[in-house]
Amino acid sequence: MIAVKNVNKTFGTNQVLTDVSLEVPKSHVVAIIGPSGAGKSTLIRTINALEPIDNGEIIVDGISIHDKKVDINKARSEIGFVFQSFNLYPFLTALQNVTLAPINVKGLSKGEAEKRGKELLTSLGLGDKFDAYPNRLSGGQQQRVAIARALAMEPRVMLFDEPTSALDPEMVTEVLDAIRKLAEDGMTMVVVTHEMGFAKEICDEIIFMAEGKVVEQASPDKFFSNPNTERARNFLSKVL
Ligand code: ADP
Ligand code: MG
């Protein structure tokens, strides 16, 4: 479903991604972990072309998304992205946040979009928050609205960049539970996370990055019990 092939990316003279390759089969969940500055956010942003790449290729559901001939808005509408910082529209209600793109980009009628939006919000435990504005919602609730908003476009894959890092500890579980449910429903996902317990439990594969490179790629069992590299052992000793 997702193939990243020999991707290199620089910011000025800073080589941020070096020959990064990975594959995510349909319905698999891959966690990207690693120290701050490793290039995790940059990598995940290249997967929906929020960042250009210097060379290499990224294919999502058969579409080479950095190909100049590709309609990037159409390609991007197949890829749900959830940021650390929610990024809801503050002047729209929860339901309006969720229905905006389906109406404007997909051309759904307001009625259809609202029906689907209400179902999504309800499935994420927000059945009583349709008309709430973001500033009246907790961080965990806002992040669940952000997940509903991404799902409303019926994406083929979902990307998460540290979806719980900006949350108070007591709200982390509700957001991880929402992602767990998506995994159970067979959504293909890439999740940048510092939640090692979650990565171990939910993910099919762990990708450990450091200094712009994929250092290890292994099953959670293997990675957490017996990593191959000193770099990963050192990282795990600090976070576990
Ligand atoms: P991570 O998410 O693993 O913490 P990032 O992908 O955010 O790492 O950053 C990797 C490197 O790229 C860092 O050295 C960071 O300073 C640099 N970087 C990230 N975004 C930009 C940008 N827009 N312009 C210049 N440098 C950037
Ligand atoms: Mg980051």
TrEMBL record:
Membrane topology designation: Peripheral membrane protein
Alphabetical list of Gene3D superfamilies matching this protein: P-loop containing nucleotide triphosphate hydrolases (3.40.50.300)
GO molecular function: ABC-type amino acid transporter activity; ATP binding; ATP hydrolysis activity
GO cellular component: plasma membrane
Main location: membrane
Subcellular location: Cell membrane
PANTHER family: AMINO ACID IMPORT ATP-BINDING PROTEIN, GLUTAMATE_ASPARTATE IMPORT ATP-BINDING PROTEIN GLTL
Assigned protein family: Belongs to the ABC transporter superfamily.
Protein name: Polar amino acid transport system ATP-binding protein
